[in-house]
């Protein structure tokens, strides 16, 4: 059976200094905003890959340029629901699962997220209830689900290095089969900027 899977990008509109303020001393506020926009645009430009729908959940919007890019690439643009990160993810997952067999939720901060990685997540959902895309710092940047339960998102210290471990514990408690994709890195400190250069991403260039 081929699953009907919807893809959901949770991202914020560029606003001076709000995207990792630790990068401001290195790039300046305008440079940080441009980098933020580059990372969001990079995801919006990924190929469709057969997803039943692709939804760009924007926070702190609107942003005309990003919304236009999303619409040009056949993404639906919607404002994020209220609540902390866990509650927003739960609500988005529940909405996606009301019309699809599975959902994949991703963020904007992983420059190495590509079509092959998303395809691997979809393949994993063929035989798992959940799939996680771990990050090097103990979090995750992708969550694929065929079921949703509030316990998966409650009382998680979002932003800490305990997110992945606690989420896996919850999945075990729920007795859901889950898979882990290879770990990727997320951009959240000046020490990560040289990695962007090695990828050929020109910092702050629109």
From TrEMBL:
It holds the Pfam family DUF2064. It comes from the Bacteria. PANTHER family: GLYCOSYLTRANSFERASE, SLL1095 PROTEIN. This is DUF2064 domain-containing protein. It comes from Metapseudomonas lalkuanensis.
């Amino acid at each position: 059976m081929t699953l009907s899977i919807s893809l959901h990008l949770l991202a914020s509109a560029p606003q001076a200094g709000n995207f990792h303020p630790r990068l401001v001393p290195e790039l300046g506020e305008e440079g940080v905003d441009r980098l933020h926009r580059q990372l969001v645009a990079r995801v919006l430009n990924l190929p469709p890959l057969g997803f039943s729908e692709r939804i760009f959940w924007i926070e702190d919007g609107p942003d005309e340029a990003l919304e236009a890019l999303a619409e040009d690439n056949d993404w639906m643009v919607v404002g994020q629901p209220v609540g902390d990160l866990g509650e927003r993810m739960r609500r988005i997952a529940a909405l996606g699962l009301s019309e699809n067999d599975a959902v994949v939720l991703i963020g904007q901060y992983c420059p190495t997220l590509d079509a092959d990685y998303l395809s691997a997540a979809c393949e994993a959902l063929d035989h798992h209830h959940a799939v996680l895309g771990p990050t090097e710092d103990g979090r995750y940047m992708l969550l694929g689900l065929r079921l949703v339960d509030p316990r998966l998102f409650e009382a998680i210290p979002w932003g800490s290095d305990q997110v992945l471990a606690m989420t896996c514990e919850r999945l075990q408690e729920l007795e859901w089969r889950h898979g882990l994709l290879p770990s990727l890195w997320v951009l959240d400190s000046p020490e990560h900027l040289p990695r962007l250069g090695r990828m050929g991403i020109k910092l702050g260039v629109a």
